[in-house]
Every structure is written in structure tokens, then in C-alpha cells.
Amino acid sequence: MSQYSMMIQWSDEDQLFLVTIPEFAERVMMPCTHGNTREEAIHQGEQVIEMYLEAWKAEGQPIPNPTFYKLFKCLYLLSATVNNLPCLMEYCRSQRDE
Which of 17, 26, 68, 85 has the most Cβ atoms closer than 10 angstroms to its Cβ? Predict the structure, then answer.
């Protein structure tokens, strides 16, 4: 499973679940794929992530960092380790700068 974010939203207009990959938004038209069900949309999103990463790597283009994953990981760690807040904040700062 990829460390990139996917936002899955229902579209009344299209009657489909639309997939947006926030880390790819500056390089790819969004929404980038869709599905008739939430599960299909997630599967399509994972395929799109893999396709773009392979293409960018083959072309020697820079690969976007999975920034939202790092943010959510920091928030999860924060909720799990409130007593270690100074260490956690330092970890989050170091991840942000990568």
C-alpha cells in the first residue's frame, strides 16, 4: 500500500466516487480517477499512484513526497504519546523538512 493520500468523495452530479491525490495535485489534473463504489475508487486510485510514480521515475522526473501521510502519522503519534510531546514535535519537524 502506498504512503500517498487519497481523498474519496461522492459526486451527485457524476454518480461516482471521485479520487483526488493531494500530493499529485500540482502535476496531475484532479480528480484523477473514479469508481462506482468506494472500494473500486480506492483500487483505481492505487493504480493511478503506481502508474504516475513509475512514469516519473522512468522519465527521471522528481517524485512528490507523501506529505499528508507524514502529517497523519505525526497526529497519530501525538494522540498515542501525549507524554512524549517534545520528542514527537521534533520528529514531526524533521519529517516536514524532508
Answer: 17
